[in-house]
Amino acid sequence: MLVALALGAPGLHAQTSPSRSNAVDPASIQALKDMGAYLRSMQRYSVSTELTGERVLADGQKLQHTAAAELEVASPNQLRARMYSARSQREIYYDGKMATLYTPQQKYYSSVEFDGPLSVLVTKLEERYGVEIPLYDLFTWGTPAAALDKIESGMNAGQDFIGPDLCNHYAFRQGNVDWQIWISVGNKPLPRKLVITNRGDEARPQSVTLMDWKLKPGFKDAVFKFTPPKGSTAVELRPLDKSKGGAS
Length: 248
Known about the structure:
Largest sheet: 12 strands, mixed
Number of domains: 1
Order of helices and strands: HHEEEEEEHEEEEEEEE
Radius of gyration: 19 Å
Distance between the termini: 41 Å
CATH superfamily: Lipoprotein localisation LolA/LolB/LppX
Number of helices: 3
Helix content: 10-25%
Strand order of the largest sheet: 7-8-9-10-11-1-2-3-4-5-6-12
Structural class: mainly beta
């Protein structure tokens, strides 16, 4: 298990873990709250991410895949997100009045009216249309949607450097998911790394996300408004048909 390996690594100390596997360290929960409060206080920022995930074949063999994303955010209700990998590209624009999904390769775009904060937008897009925004949790930490009361165990696993930043390393268990987060030390507690392990699958596939932040970005508000490129086609974004488990 990753947590066990980490506790045995140089520079980490086994006594930082709880004495019971299902214990929740209050200080670890408070660290998530402090991080969430800081994220909610940020007015304008950009963050770029690199994701490494695993796909498990029928015979148990694991295949890695990579993806990247770039987000520009102006709280509480403006966002541009660009996601790309060797297999697909997509962009999401939200200017506080209209949310637009654009696929550059196909030159298709779909727009829906919306006027809520980002914490609500990310939830509604996924629930209604199956559209997932990268780093979804960035917009829910520090809000009631974070549901910290559902965490079953949590511990401080010591400290690591993520890039140049010294970070506190925390490990949590929640349902069939184990997750670890590295939060930068100091008065700007930003998440720098996130590891998620799916315990519901015997192969224990993982995803690893690294995050780089710009707290004084140079973008203008115009980046949040989508202008259809020449030759692009508008298509309807249909709500999911939950009775069929897919889009209607």
